[in-house]
Amino acid sequence: MSVFPRLSLKPEVHDHLKNVFLNQELLAAVGQPEAESRFQRLLLCLSHPPGFTCVRASTHLAPRDEIRLRLAEELQQQQQTVSVEILPHPLLPDVLLLPVSGPRSLVPLGSEVVVGAQCGSAVLRGAHVFAPGILATPKFLKPGDAVSVFSDVDGRCTRGSKVSFQGNKVFVGNGVSEMHRSAIFSQEPAKGIGVRMTEPLYQSPSFDGVLPSLVFLQNLPSVVVGHVVGPRPGERVLDMCAAPGGKTCHLAALMENQGEVVALDRIRRKVDCVLQNAAALQLTCVRAFCFNSTQAVTSDPAPPHTEGPPFPPSRFDRVLLDAPCSGLGQRPSMSAGCSLKELLSYPPLQRKLFHAAVQLLRPGGVLVYSTCTVTLAENEEQVAWALRTFPCLTLAPQEPHVGGPGLPGAGLTPDQLTLLQRFSPELSSAATPLSHRADSDTIGFFIAKFLKS
Ligand SMILES: C[S@@+](CC[C@H](N)C(=O)[O-])C[C@H]1O[C@@H](n2cnc3c(N)ncnc32)[C@H](O)[C@@H]1O
Predict the structure, then answer these.
(1) Can you say whether the dihedral through the CA atoms of 407, 409, 414, 416 is positive or negative?
(2) Does the CB atom of residue 250 touch ligand 1 within 6 A?
(3) 30, 170, 255, 380: most buried, per Cβ within 10 A?
(4) Is 290 in the active site?
(5) Is domain 112-200 annotated with CATH 1.10.10.10?
(6) Which value does ipTM take for this structure?
(7) Quick one: pLDDT band at residue 84, thresholds 50, 70, 90?
């Protein structure tokens, strides 16, 4: 699978991460050679896409089998492929999996379009190239031209370039232009598909406009989170860091759209995105507010009579803290530009959010903490801190538990590590049985579930 180099990190971040993955507790458990090899495997698989595309079926609107059939028909019609393999997940009742094939051996066509790294990652997961993601094209690009698409790994390509880009770039496939160069770089930001991918390096269907109310593209561990929160119809649930709303909508669907899911995010345009997603999925029990969740608890004994934040303590039956994090588990990612300072800025913010989460949860309620990163400081160390800081919290078993245990290194006991769920793609291999590979060849992710007494 090593068509791309390992994920490139700033040297100080690389060393920091290496210390995490070669910590004393882990070395004692698995030995130095195995720990070293896991770390190298991690950097390698992070630069490659996961082995499956995961979609969540809107089972509040139709049975999964019906959605599966309609999806197969739709993909065949839209993409004119002969057949698309769509597998129901054996344990997650609303998940459909599409195996990703690749990397294929392809020859670049010569005429080059360069896209931003985020766009390049989306292409590796099945997307076409949308015009805003394009950075450079040939001088006379026009609709119908065959092009090779390259991803600008280090973010060095200037938008609007005409000349061939000589920086660090990787080939992600061939396609056909749908626009003139002038339209792509016009003053009004261009919208729509700029290059339709005809030979992507990794083959996975594009979901653009496919059954928008019935399927939602979501990484498998993110779907697991919704089930672990386990909301019931009629409950009051808080999603503290909600945008773009994938988990919010899942929680509302699991509640059969009965009760209340309050979604907060500190960025206005992202809150609009949560509302758009909820509307597309016909989930009317979602209320979204632009708010800083660290301030979401009011000490006022008689808070103003509004339905929005801040809220009085113990207001919610369940709270999800899907925390802002360093995102180092995201795949594929060929270069993570964050500095050590930035990396170290997340744990204090996560703790502030955690304080608010514990106060807003009613006694007997459930708190789920999750991140899409791989560091100890944002995951197991936060759990150890939370258990020390809030005597009212205990770790609870997770259902379903399809990931691995927590990573040793934060002083948690083996029993506590077993209650955590860490998705570690470096532990997946070709030898992993196909039935389990979709649960391990995922993005890097972490989930902890707490009960409040
Ligand atoms: C990991 S993303 C959430 C993804 C989301 N839960 C989903 O599944 O679609 C973290 C989000 O936290 C938001 N955020 C960061 N700091 C916040 C704060 N203090 N209060 C509320 N939201 C915050 C960010 O804007 C970002 O959208």
Answers:
(1) negative
(2) no
(3) 380
(4) no
(5) no
(6) 0.99
(7) confident
